[in-house]
Specification:
By secondary structure, this protein is an alpha/beta fold. Strands 9, 11, 14, 16, 17, 18, 19, 20, 21 and 22 form a ten-stranded mixed β-sheet that branches. It has a seven-stranded antiparallel β-sheet with strand order 1-7-4-5-6-3-2, with no helix packed on it. A hairpin with a 5-residue loop joins strand 4 and strand 5. Helix 10 crosses helix 12.
Length: about 475
């Protein structure tokens, strides 16, 4: 039941304090009408007896408390869901942004979702192929996982996000039931146009749903944007039996919007001025990923965030790391050397990778080869650092081989083009070709049976490549 009041006592930033209200609930949707006739939506942040704190999505600039009408709509914020969302672009509040018609929803769903009962959760399993060797080969993405990308200002995380959105797919069972839900928060118009163009050029837009909140849109709208995206993802995954990959960029802007609202509410600040409930708020988003027993679909998340001053101890990456199952870290030094994508392999981690690889999922030798490449690259980096101190003449023959391996690994395995979509077989093939640069006795992390099976073909391929190059 709708109720209208003109009892606003105070307006501070995007917040309105409304008195003498009745039957108002937390999260209830509100329509605001200002003295100049403009209207805006909002929601209830807090209720204390007959006083309600309302958050306006479009801002309150120029409004007069005594002449502002506040209409409580008796319902929470919802999103109309339908399979017709695929191929469409929406703004941060779920309104069409691509010039197309309104979606005719099958039903309307609260954007706050319902927590997944822990006993109903199924363990993340099976492999998602991104087409990027540094992810698929060493830190694979698993269906139902939360795997963030930690980036920095000026690094190509937007290009990487677009590449993953274009190329990501599932293999084996359910390969045709895959969708991408892309939520962008606080991005520029140029970035929004870039994402739409990249997906349209490869027809990936047909399996995608985009929610775009631009930098000049109200900051408080950013708080609703990822929840809109997750609501669409939950419908596609658990009612349409699709495997859905949700990509957020940039979670730093989302957290700064939370800080802005918290400051307007005069809450006691926590670390770096962020609200003390930042961890809880992020968990309400990240924990909506997963699989449910008895359901064929799944939700996998890749949150992308820029670390202020490349500081991994900043509250946003720090708390994100506690909630999620690993992280992919982008390296500024690799970027300066022209390596794309500049994935820092050694500090990156996918805690669930063993659940998504191996025989029947990727290939039987995947785990062993991944461990060997990781170990050899780490030793090669150490050898190169030692050479800087003592000179190359001080290196042993094995150390020299590992140093050469590290250079080749960065140039051939990590480096790839923005439109270079590698299958997992191609990624593993490159890995075996790199393994030929090491003495056979140093391949200690790979079972002898796999070495005998895959190394000869890799050696033959390496010889062929060398002959073609000469």
């Amino acid at each position: 039941m709708e109720r209208e009041y003109m009892t606003t006592r105070d307006i501070v930033g995007p917040l309105l304090l409304v008195e003498d209200v009745a039957d108002v609930t937390y999260g209830e949707l509100v329509e605001l009408e200002y003295p100049d006739g403009t209207r805006s939506l909002g929601n209830v942040l807090e209720v204390n007896e007959d006083v309600a704190l309302v958050q306006a999505f479009q801002g309150t600039r120029g409004s007069n408390p005594s002449q502002t009408k506040v209409r409580f709509l008796g319902k929470g914020m919802t999103l109309g869901v339908s399979r017709d969302m695929l191929g469409r672009v929406f703004d941060g509040l779920g309104r069409p942004k691509d010039g197309g018609p309104e979606i005719l929803p099958e039903r309307r769903v609260s954007i706050h979702g319902s927590p997944i009962n822990p006993t109903a959760r199924d363990f993340p399993d099976d492999f998602i192929q991104t087409g990027i060797s540094s992810i698929d080969g060493l830190n694979p993405l698993v269906r139902g996982q939360k795997l963030p990308i930690f980036s920095g200002s000026g690094l190509p995380h937007n290009q990487l996000a677009a590449q993953i959105a274009r190329q990501a797919t599932v293999t084996g069972e359910g390969a045709g039931q895959f969708a991408v839900v892309f939520a962008a928060m606080g991005i520029t118009f140029e970035d929004a146009d870039f994402f739409m163009t990249e997906l349209r050029q490869t027809a990936a837009i047909e399996r995608s749903v985009l929610f775009l909140n631009l930098a000049d849109d109200p900051a408080v709208e950013r708080i609703a944007t990822p929840r809109m995206a997750l609501t669409a993802a939950e419908y596609l995954a658990f009612e349409c039996d699709m495997h859905v990959l949700v990509i957020y960029t940039d979670m730093t802007y989302y957290c700064e919007a939370l800080r802005e609202v918290s400051a307007a509410r005069k809450e006691v600040p926590g670390r770096r001025g962020f609200p003390g409930y930042l961890y809880t708020d992020l968990a309400t988003l990240y924990e909506r990923a997963g699989r449910i027993k008895g359901k064929a679909g799944s939700i996998t998340q890749i949150p992308i965030l820029t670390m202020p001053e490349d500081d991994k101890t900043h509250p946003i990456p720090d708390l994100t790391g506690y909630i999620t199952e690993g992280q992919i870290i982008l390296d500024r030094n690799l970027h300066r050397r022209g390596v794309y994508p500049p994935v820092a392999v050694l500090p990156s981690l996918s805690r669930l990778k063993q659940k998504g690889i191996g025989e029947g999922k990727t290939r039987e030798d995947h785990a062993d080869l991944s461990n060997q490449l990781f170990g050899a690259y780490a030793r090669g980096i150490q050898a190169k650092e030692l050479a800087v101190i003592l000179g190359e003449a001080a290196l042993s023959e094995a150390d020299t081989a590992f140093a050469a391996f590290a250079d080749a690994f960065e140039d051939r395995f990590i480096r790839q083009g923005e439109h270079d979509d590698r299958t997992i077989e191609e990624t593993l093939g490159i890995g075996w070709e790199l393994a030929t640069l090491l003495p056979r006795g140093e391949l200690k992390r790979i079972k002898d049976a796999y070495v005998d099976r895959y190394l000869p073909a890799a050696e033959a391929m390496a010889v062929k490549v060398a002959m073609d190059a000469s």
